[in-house]
Design brief:
Rossmann fold, 18 strands, about 20% strand, single chain, about 40% helix, about 375 residues, alpha/beta
Length: about 375
């Protein structure tokens, strides 16, 4: 049910920016602000750019549906995948822009902000990740994205089937990669030696040489992991190198300088028989004039915004109503499939499997 403000003074809505309200005959439209926080620049920009592209497409459709009744605003904040910048962006969106709903793609920031979102009466959704760690953070915090544990579990299952005995893990220091690594280590049968690195590191040769005798190497990082693959091949590594969904990006392939054929990685691809998935692809092509580079990140942003949009349609600025609406999401038709929000406010329906490069093509490993 849409909420239309008839008397501003009577409602006493302190978070409404009256400059943004336009008169419509004798009525005045309600303003609802949605904020998005994620990397739009820096080494992780490809993740946020893909994710927010899906958010924008879903938001535009929401505007078309509700534009006669509501003023809808989308404000995008670049946090460069930095938790501190993400928290600052949240403060701006709430205290200056008066956002009612926020999508935050930075994993660590969602962990930190859950309690504050509850106190602020803001609906906070992670549109990229979903995990056990993100479950039950607060009544107002949800995760509608990739089930992160499935990434580590898929890699472990593959290596178990290969009979690997000794594995090296090189992981970026990050809450997300820690989660994937933890799930991987719990499932894998082999002995594991692990090393870490920061996003500013550029020479990985010394660390890689520690893995020279390993059966396989698992890389957990962003597009910079392409440089690790390149350096490993230059050192003569012939063993299998396995990674995560960022292996699918154009920047990763460029960073390998051509050394990506045959690489395996956890990934997700949409189903052509899914009508919502094909709608997203068509809308992306019309909007950006090309196919999406990383459809998974785009699809999760699209689905998260659509679930949020359904709550906005039903509840307007009433975030308590919207919270209940999202909690009751069951078998919602999304680009990633049927979406269900579990009792602990996270989704587990978007799971990754092992894919590989066959030349320029990405194929699922059967």
């Amino acid at each position: 049910m849409l909420f239309v403000l008839l008397l501003l003074a009577g409602m006493g809505c302190s978070r409404l920016n009256t400059q943004d309200i336009k008169e419509d005959s004798s009525q005045e439209k309600e303003t609802i602000t949605v904020g998005y926080i994620g990397p739009q620049s820096g080494d992780s920009a490809i993740i946020g750019e893909a994710n927010v592209a899906g958010v924008k497409i879903a938001f535009q459709k929401l505007q078309e549906d509700l534009g006669k009744d509501l003023n809808l605003k989308l404000i995008i904040e670049d946090d460069q995948f930095d938790e501190r910048q993400s928290i600052s962006a949240y403060q701006k969106l709430v205290n200056i822009d008066h956002a009612d709903y926020i999508l935050d793609a930075t994993y660590g920031a969602v962990l930190s902000l859950a309690g504050q979102a509850q106190n602020d009466g803001v609906l906070l959704i992670n549109p990229l990740d979903s995990s056990e760690e993100l479950s039950n953070l607060s009544e107002n915090t949800f995760s509608i994205g990739i089930y992160d544990e499935s990434i580590g579990l898929s890699i472990a299952d593959y290596l178990n089937n290969q009979g690997a005995k000794n594995i090296g893990v090189l992981a970026l220091y990050d809450p997300f990669t820690d989660l994937v690594k933890g799930a991987f280590k719990e499932r894998v049968h082999a002995s594991v030696e692990e090393e870490g690195y920061t996003i500013n590191d550029s020479d990985f040769r010394t660390t890689l040489l520690k893995f020279k005798q390993k059966d396989a190497i698992v890389l957990l990082g962003w597009e910079e992991s392409g440089r690790i693959v390149k350096q490993a091949r230059e050192l003569g590594f012939t063993q299998e190198i396995i990674g995560i969904d960022t292996f699918a990006s154009e920047d990763f392939r460029k960073n390998t300088q051509g050394s990506y054929n045959g690489l395996k990685f956890a990934f997700w691809q949409g189903a052509s028989e899914n009508a919502e998935y094909t709608k997203l692809l068509d809308a992306y092509q019309k909007t950006y004039g090309k196919d999406p580079e990383n459809i998974l990140f785009t699809a999760t942003g699209y689905d998260a915004m659509r679930v949020m949009g359904q709550a906005i349609k039903e509840c307007g600025k009433d975030t308590a109503c919207a919270r209940k609406n999202i909690q009751e999401t069951k078998n919602f038709p999304g680009a990633t499939g049927l979406i269900t929000v579990d009792h602990d406010n996270v989704t587990r329906s978007i799971q990754e499997t092992i894919h590989y490069y066959d030349g320029e093509q990405i194929r699922e490993l059967k």
